[in-house]
Structure formats: C-alpha cells, structure tokens
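Section 5.1 Outputs to date
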Amino acid sequence: RKGRRGGTLYLIGLGLGDEKDITVKGLETVRRCKAVFLEAYTSILGVEKEKVEEFYGREISLMDREAVEQECDTMLNMAQTEEVAFLVVGDVYGATTHTDIAVRARDMGVQVRVIHNASIMNACGCCGLQLYNFGQTVSFCFWTDTWKPQSFIDKVVVNKKMGLHTLCLLDIKVKEQSDENMARGRKIYEPPRYMTVNQALEQLLETIAERPDIAAVIPANSLCVGLSRVGLETQCIASGPLNELVNFDFGGPLHSMIIPGDMHYLEE
C-alpha cells in the first residue's frame, strides 16, 4: 500500500427521503470538504439536485454509472491530498460498487471514513414485518424479449421454505444505452426507468405460471407487500394477494416489495 498523504475520502449516506435526511455529522463533513460528488444511479433522492445543493450550501457533481465505475480516478486522486465527499442515497454499503470504491481508495493510500444512514434494507420494517425474520434479499431486473432470468425466484423459495420474509429490490435503469446504440458506439441514452411493484409482480406471476415447483411454494394468491417512496411524506404501503396487488397503483418511484414468510401475530 502506498503511504498516506493527508487526504480523506468520506463515504456519506443520505438516507431515503429528501435533502434533510442527512445526519448532522454528514452535513458538517459535506460543508468542509474540498469537493462533493453524488452517486446518481443505484438509487435516487426524492428531490432535485438543486434543492440538495441549496440546503447543503455546496455545489455537487453528479456521478452516473459510467463515471462511478470507470472514471472515479479523478475523485480518488483528489482524495489523496484533500477532503472529498462521496454521497450515496440510503446507506453507503447498499451497493457493491461503493465497497469497490472504498477498497480502491485504501489501496491508493487514501484514508476512508464512513458516515452511515438509513436504507431500504432496514426502513422496510415500516410495513410491520420484523427485520429479524428476513432472509436473503433479492433483486428483480427488467426482462427483455430475449432475456428473462428466473434465478431471483429460487432465493425467494429458499426463504419461504425457511419461513423467512424476502425483501425484493426492484431494477433501476439510468443512462442506459439500447443494444443498437451500444453496438454502434453511439452515446445516446434511453430515458430513465424505475421498476414498479406491478411490473415485478407480473414477472413473478409469469414465472409461477410456468413452473409448478414454484407455484407449490408461492401460489398466485400468496400474500405480498408493496412499498413506494419509503421515507417521503407520500410513502405508500399496501398488501394483498399477488394476483390482486398487481393492479394496485403505487404511484411514482422508488418501489420495493416484500414476500412474507411465516408471520408472528404482531406482524399480521
């Protein structure tokens, strides 16, 4: 490892709602850092960047997927000699990308400090299900006409057989290229897409219809809980059978979903 030169990279969780969900320690740190970057593709805040900048009193540089995963050397090089803040919606370690950045920074001799915050991984308890009773979390990705993976459902089945709840994180597509534009090397990006509970349930119900082994464990009338905009004043939580909840309007993003296992009477 290279010797440290006095800089620090602060990984700061912003919470789930708006610009005021940052911790006092996080805000104090942001206001004294030389530069402030906001990761803007694994999740989104419920307010615009300009409102965040006004409250923090700092100019913020947005980093999309390409910048975070391929072009973050500028940020890390700056952190070798200066205090730099990298802001993450939710908690810092909610995505493997952020772990990679921390490892890379330490390998460069950069001191790394983490300031945590709430994430959907614990805030999902707002629906009344107890966090102790959750199994492994799964991710639902957008299907295409030619690619319909079903690996997610196998983890749900494992949890279900053990009586555990499953938190389902739903796909986000920000600054994505179409197959044609990618093949032609054109920097043309598709509009942002955020998977809804309804879309996730449609994929789940299609999988259940195709696989009797899954239907035996998770029938189409199984209980499901949908959550949207957790942490905001417009937060929405609704539960019901899969085949009925699929038609419920949860409103705007972000959405997540829970497939309950065995429930304690307090959870019911």
